[in-house]
Amino acid sequence: MRLSLLGTALLASLAVAQNTVSNTILVFARDSTSGYSATSGFNAYGIPYQLVIVPQAGITLPTLNSSTTAGNYGGILVLSEVAYSYSTGWGSALTTAQWQQLYNYQTQFGVRMVRLDVYPGPDFGTWLLVMNMS
Question: Which of 71, 99, 100, 128 lies in the 20 to 30 Å Cα band around 27?
Fold first, then answer.
């Protein structure tokens, strides 16, 4: 059983190694001002990026990969979860299905996602514990 798991892991890593990705960073932001705070550093170092402004109504994701082995982005940066206040509370303008597409891309192409300015929660292994001390 152990050899089987090791063999499976090796095959998975070889599959990722055969993939190629562009060095462009995909950046999601709610507006150009917050987008600038993330991309100005990329500009300073000549790092290519694509800024996607996500309005409260949501967007269609850009094409993440051009084939099963060629990814269009070498990393993903999401600012403030691109979250807005809706009638049901705060939530991301990206749908659950879109988040899953991003996670699948990460896995398939071995790229990292950085989520900045995110409220702690179970997605990140943290829970907010509120105690009433009165």
Answer: 128
> Does residue 25 fall inside a structural domain?
yes
pLDDT tens per residue across span 25-75: 999 999 999 999 889 999 999 999 999 999 999 999 999 999 999 999 999
Instruction: Return all residues near 20 (Cβ < 8 A) that are at least 6 apart.
Output: 69, 70, 71
For residue 41, the domain's CATH number is 3.40.50
Strands (E), 30-132: 49-53, 70-71, 75-79, 83-86, 89-92, 112-116
Q: In this structure, what are the phi and psi dihedrals at residue 10, rounded to the nearest 5 degrees?
A: -65, -45
